[in-house]
């Protein structure tokens, strides 16, 4: 019986934790907030205390909920500062508005009530209310403007609204002292109580949390490094053959760790900035962790590179399964699938022991670093996890408490050991590759994959070495201070606003550019730890200057003010301009400006700046007007003399309070807020009615207080631990407001039932007005915002490609990626990632909007894939840019004079594709007809690099044998490529005669290996761009060619088919032909075919095709290849060539899905082909055949 009860109890516990997850920290926060609000409620019930609170005692529990103690101390201090700033500004503004309104009433405003003013001085009374209405309107516009500018300002402008809105409802005969007391004492007392309970009950210091977060982040980084290295070198081995104790993790877990590490690194940076709001007392300052946390970002990029290499290796292993598939599914052909795994595995087998040895020492060094930091910042040592994947992991010393720590950690010895292991690994790696065949070292997919892993692995090792240096400094500081004793060693660290940068962070609230904080997270405590944030997410608005400041194609279109000072001049030839300058006879020289010209300049400059400001602030103006119009419609009776008294007695302030909380920047967000707040108000008001009834109409206030606390605790759980912040916060406030409206004696004399009804009416009226205004006045749809964010990311990717590609005009470069360009790339990448975070939020809000064009579920799935693909592209670009910044690029720095046309073609094709996708999302127009993929251009670049290496490094190989021409891949291109190579040979002829360079030495340079790693990243980017183009076709459609060269095979193809089977040809049936399955080819031959096909498509005279097919293969007709459509197996084309050679524009039926979606139609037009099936017109026939049919019809008639 006991076992059955225990089993049921465990099941109940698991069910409860699954649906209502809670940990110790969250439970402590809920307890603190409940105690704080309950004490504030008790103060309102005590008459002796209530008379010192002024005319608005109910503001005390309200502000205790808004400035709750459920934050860390630093977050509470920050919220207090913003709240106090809003209170001071709001009270000053309200007192000034009331002062002007009282002046309108005349000198007897103190002696006459509002009813007497209405009866005796109606015009003056009306004028006074008009003044209040004007002040209210400007305040509301300012409130909306600041909220649109940054959600960070909500904590400041909401108290400002409370003070002004409620103060304007107070009688005009109240003196300034009474108004000041009513809106200072409750607010300041509530803020002080929150700070007190935050410090007394389970205090959470930001510096302590910073240490815990740093160790947790390093645990994730450590585990990701171990799992990725184990996966890469052990995925194809049996468990008995593996060097590790544990089998490799699944690829899905590795891929899921990438966003987890990214979010954890962003959280770590946010906590570091949050610590500037508190004063800490410890041995070591929290700011000493800043250089360590800043290096986490680059380390996360290297880890992304390691995981991407594992993904490519897995694709290479499973290529046989992935090559064939259903044409109805969108499957992009992977370049890595054409690599030789046997050749790759042969080299990896030799390098496996070296990688394992370095990995083991690296893992031990990371664990030592975690122990040093945990000891320095008083973090529990058991929080630092050690590696468990090695066979001798049990022999490694694990530290569980401070007593086990040694006196000397031998950090320098550990660092030297790691550096020596890295040098040995580099030496062994080069020695093994020097022994390998020359064909492996040439630019090929196998070498690209190996270089990607090895370069990221080496850079990760360098990161750990730097981490040891920083950890040594922190540990030395901690040891020196600890030796002085507890009293002298610890210091008070004032990190508050220690620099101008921290002051800007405090003003703007921009902690994390990639994961900006929204209103919900700001109300909860600054940093969200929820797993399902998208359920109740509130999207943050993109900064107004982001698009103009980051994207050059738009920023350069603006007129520069400096151009106004210069006279427009036509460009002159060099000889003519030199003669004019020498003769000093240039008649169009700019003369000294007159007063009129200077005034004209300043007026023009003023107009340009005004126009730029209005364009940048369009969204802020819109939301400001929405807030002002909605609140004035909801609260206009308070400014009308006839309805003001009725509005006050009906608790009209509640209407405005609910309305301003429901207004959000988008329609979906407003609708969701209205629903949540209506639910919260009904539940909270009903619980207040229950508490009042349990207290037997104030006869038992103790039971009433207990019941209220019981209802507030679940509300605070939903407030602090779930995404439903908006419903929880207004539900808790409704409990106290409704109860105090009936309990506190006032001039309104409400019963609990009437208070409940008025509160429900307030949410219905105020929320309904907010929703109607959002739908009618300047509506902002979440779907439109989603499209704009995705378009912004596409433009950012195009900009990143241009910044990454240096030397596209063939100019010589010593540095392939300058520090200035890299900083700009980092800025653009951060803005793009922040836009993707906003797109995720808008995607969730779009499901909540009313839609007339059908269900949004299918579109939501497509947008999810689009966002995922854009994130993958950004990961690859960031990793490639960081590797190029650290090591350079041999191709750009040494061979750019030869390969720059091919590099320029790739970048141009990628930028054109991303630009077309960007415009398609912005304008909701179909994609153009012809969108060639950069895949062929990328293959041509690789072939050209091979050829350049063969021509430039044609000396003896390291093994003493010359390169045999039979083993070379003969690449052919058009005549201009041949001329470039001739010039290149002449430039390097003198150098070749002086010394012989081995191709091994060049192929093993750091810069060349970096180019290999970046090349495999670019191949993946091209594949992802192709998938993105196909998904865009599903969303917006595509303009297909109906006639012409690209719409069908050439004349000889369809004419032959029409002659042999005219009926089948008219009906679109494919004639039966005897086809033999194509035999497998070497990837080099396929690549050469693809390169030659691309050259043939460019037109002009062509060189002979340098293709040596097998005897069993028939010669290929390049004319048929160029006109052949994907998915059509006629012509005997090899399967590998069909998938690799053709661009996106040739794919016809690849994007069709099981739901009837295709690139010819969108989800809103899935049944548009019903009528077309009955159409018997010959619109789809070729033009020549239509003429024949038309002529036959004419003759018959």
TrEMBL record:
Bilayer topology: Multi-pass membrane protein
Membrane-spanning segments: 79-101, 121-141, 153-169, 181-202, 619-640, 670-690, 702-720, 727-744, 756-778
Top-rank taxon: Eukaryota
Subcellular location, principal: membrane
Domain Putative ER transporter 6TM N-terminal: 13-436
GO CC term (a single one): membrane
Pfam families linked: ArAE_2_N (PF10337), FUSC_2 (PF13515)
Ranges of biased composition (kind: Low complexity): 1086-1098
Keywords: Membrane, Transmembrane, Transmembrane helix
All copies of domain Integral membrane bound transporter, residue ranges: 650-773
Biased composition (Acidic residues): 1166-1181
Localization (cell): Membrane
Start and end residues of each stretch annotated as Disordered: 955-974, 1065-1116, 1148-1183
Composition bias, Polar residues: 955-969
Stated name of the protein: ZYRO0F16500p
Organism: Zygosaccharomyces rouxii (strain ATCC 2623 / CBS 732 / NBRC 1130 / NCYC 568 / NRRL Y-229)
């Amino acid at each position: 019986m006991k076992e059955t009860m225990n089993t049921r109890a465990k099941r109940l516990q698991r069910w409860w934790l699954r649906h209502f997850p809670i940990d110790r920290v969250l439970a402590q926060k809920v307890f603190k907030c409940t105690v704080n609000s309950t004490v504030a409620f008790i103060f309102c019930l005590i008459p002796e205390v209530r008379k010192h609170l002024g005319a608005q005692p109910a503001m005390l529990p309200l502000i205790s909920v808004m400035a709750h103690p459920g934050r860390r101390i630093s977050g509470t201090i920050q919220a207090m500062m913003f709240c106090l700033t809003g209170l001071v500004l709001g009270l000053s503004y309200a007192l000034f508005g009331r002062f002007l309104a009282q002046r309108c009433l005349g000198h007897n405003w103190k002696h006459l009530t509002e009813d007497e003013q209405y009866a005796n001085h109606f015009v003056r009374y009306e004028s006074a209310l008009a003044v209040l209405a004007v002040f209210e309107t400007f305040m509301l516009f300012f409130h909306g403007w600041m909220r649109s500018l940054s959600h960070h300002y909500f904590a400041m402008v909401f108290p400002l609204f409370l003070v002004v809105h409620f103060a304007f409802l107070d009688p005009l005969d109240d003196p300034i002292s009474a108004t000041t007391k009513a809106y200072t004492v409750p607010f300041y007392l509530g803020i002080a109580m929150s700070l007190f309970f935050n410090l007394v009950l389970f205090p959470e210091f930001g510096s302590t949390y910073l240490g815990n977060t740093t160790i947790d982040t390093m645990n994730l980084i450590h585990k990701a490094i171990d799992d990725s290295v184990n996966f890469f070198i052990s995925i194809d081995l049996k468990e008995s053959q593996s060097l590790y104790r544990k089998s490799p993790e699944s690829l899905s877990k590795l891929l899921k760790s990438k966003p987890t590490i990214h979010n954890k690194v962003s959280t770590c940076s946010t906590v570091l900035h949050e610590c500037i709001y508190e004063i800490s007392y410890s041995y070591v300052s929290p700011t000493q962790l800043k250089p360590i946390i800043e290096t986490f970002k680059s380390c996360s990029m290297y880890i992304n590179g390691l995981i991407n290499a594992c993904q490519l290796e897995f694709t290479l292993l499973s290529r046989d399964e992935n090559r064939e598939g259903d044409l109805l599914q969108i499957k992009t052909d992977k370049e890595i699938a054409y690599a030789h795994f046997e050749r790759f595995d042969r080299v990896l087998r030799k390098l496996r022991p070296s990688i394992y040895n370095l990995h083991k020492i690296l893992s031990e060094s990371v664990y030592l670093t975690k122990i040093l930091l945990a000891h320095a910042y008083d973090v529990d040592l058991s929080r630092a996890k050690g590696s468990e994947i090695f066979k001798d992991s049990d022999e490694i010393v694990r530290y569980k408490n401070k007593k086990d720590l040694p006196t000397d950690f031998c950090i320098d010895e550990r660092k030297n050991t790691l550096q020596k292991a890295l040098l040995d690994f580099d030496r062994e790696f080069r020695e093994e590759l020097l022994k390998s065949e020359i064909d492996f070292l040439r630019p090929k997919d196998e070498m690209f994959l190996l270089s990607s892993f090895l370069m990221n692995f080496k850079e990760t090792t360098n990161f750990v070495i730097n981490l040891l240096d920083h950890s040594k400094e922190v540990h030395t500081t901690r040891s020196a201070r600890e030796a002085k004793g507890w009293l002298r060693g610890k210091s008070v660290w004032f990190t508050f606003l220690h620099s101008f940068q921290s002051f800007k962070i405090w003003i703007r609230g921009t902690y994390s550019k990639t994961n900006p904080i929204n209103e919900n997270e700001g109300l909860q405590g600054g940093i969200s730890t929820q797993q399902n944030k998208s359920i109740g997410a509130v999207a943050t608005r993109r900064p107004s200057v982001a698009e103009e400041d980051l994207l050059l194609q738009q920023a350069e279109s603006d007129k520069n003010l400096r151009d106004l000072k210069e006279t427009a001049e036509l460009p002159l030839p060099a000889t003519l301009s030199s003669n004019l300058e020498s003769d000093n006879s240039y008649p169009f020289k700019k003369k000294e400006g007159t007063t009129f010209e200077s005034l004209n300049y300043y007026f023009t400059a003023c107009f340009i700046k005004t126009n730029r400001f209005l364009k940048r602030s369009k969204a802020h103006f819109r939301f400001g007007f929405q807030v002002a119009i909605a609140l004035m419609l909801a609260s206009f009776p308070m400014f009308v003399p006839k309805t003001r008294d009725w509005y006050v007695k009906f608790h009209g302030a509640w209407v405005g309070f609910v309305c301003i909380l429901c207004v959000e920047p988008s329609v979906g967000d407003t609708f969701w807020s209205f629903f949540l707040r209506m639910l919260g108000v009904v539940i909270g008001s009903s619980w207040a009615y229950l508490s009042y009834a349990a207290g037997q109409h104030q006869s038992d206030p103790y039971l009433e207080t207990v019941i209220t606390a019981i209802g507030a605790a679940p509300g605070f759980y939903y407030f602090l631990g779930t995404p439903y912040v908006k419903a929880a916060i207004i539900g808790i406030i409704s409990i106290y407001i409704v109860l105090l409206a009936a309990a506190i004696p006032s001039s309104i004399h409400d019963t609990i039932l009437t208070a409940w009804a008025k509160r429900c009416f307030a949410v219905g009226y105020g929320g309904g007005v907010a929703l109607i205004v959002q739908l009618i006045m300047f509506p902002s749809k979440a779907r439109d915002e989603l499209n704009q964010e995705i378009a912004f990311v596409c433009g950012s990717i195009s900009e990143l490609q241009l910044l990454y590609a240096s030397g596209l005009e063939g100019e010589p470069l010593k540095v392939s990626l300058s520090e200035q360009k890299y900083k700009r790339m980092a800025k653009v990448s951060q803005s793009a990632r922040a836009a993707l975070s906003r797109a995720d939020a808008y995607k969730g809000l779009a499901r909540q909007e009313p839609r007339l064009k059908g269900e949004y579920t299918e579109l939501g799935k497509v947008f999810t894939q689009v966002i995922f693909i854009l994130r993958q592209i950004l990961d690859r670009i960031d990793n490639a840019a960081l590797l190029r910044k650290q090591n350079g690029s041999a191709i750009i720095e040494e061979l750019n004079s030869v390969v720059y046309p091919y590099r320029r073609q790739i970048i141009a094709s990628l930028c054109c594709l991303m630009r077309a996708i960007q415009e398609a999302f912005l304008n909701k127009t179909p994609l153009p007809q012809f969108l060639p993929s950069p895949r062929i251009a990328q293959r041509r670049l690789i072939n050209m690099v091979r050829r350049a290496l063969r021509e430039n490094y044609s000396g003896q190989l390291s093994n003493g044998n010359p390169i045999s021409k039979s083993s070379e891949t003969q690449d052919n291109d058009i005549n201009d490529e041949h001329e470039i190579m001739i010039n290149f040979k002449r430039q390097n002829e003198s150098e070749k005669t002086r010394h012989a360079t081995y191709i091994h030495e060049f192929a093993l340079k750091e810069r060349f290996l970096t180019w290999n790693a970046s090349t495999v990243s670019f191949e993946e980017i091209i594949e992802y761009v192709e998938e993105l183009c196909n998904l865009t076709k599903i969303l917006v459609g595509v303009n297909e060619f109906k006639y012409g060269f690209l719409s069908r095979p050439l004349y000889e193809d369809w004419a032959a088919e029409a002659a042999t089977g005219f009926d089948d040809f008219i009906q679109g049936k494919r004639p039966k032909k005897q086809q033999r399955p194509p035999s497998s080819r070497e990837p080099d031959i396929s690549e050469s075919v693809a390169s030659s096909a691309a050259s043939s498509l460019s037109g002009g005279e062509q060189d002979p095709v340098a293709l040596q097919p097998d005897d069993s293969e028939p010669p290929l007709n390049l004319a048929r290849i160029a006109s052949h459509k994907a998915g059509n197996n006629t012509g005997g084309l090899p399967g590998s060539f069909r998938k690799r050679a053709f661009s996106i524009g040739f794919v016809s039926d690849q994007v069709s899905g099981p739901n009837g979606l295709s690139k010819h139609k969108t989800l809103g037009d899935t049944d548009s082909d019903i009528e077309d099936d009955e159409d018997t017109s010959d619109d789809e026939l070729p033009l020549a055949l239509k003429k024949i049919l038309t002529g036959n019809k004419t003759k018959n008639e």
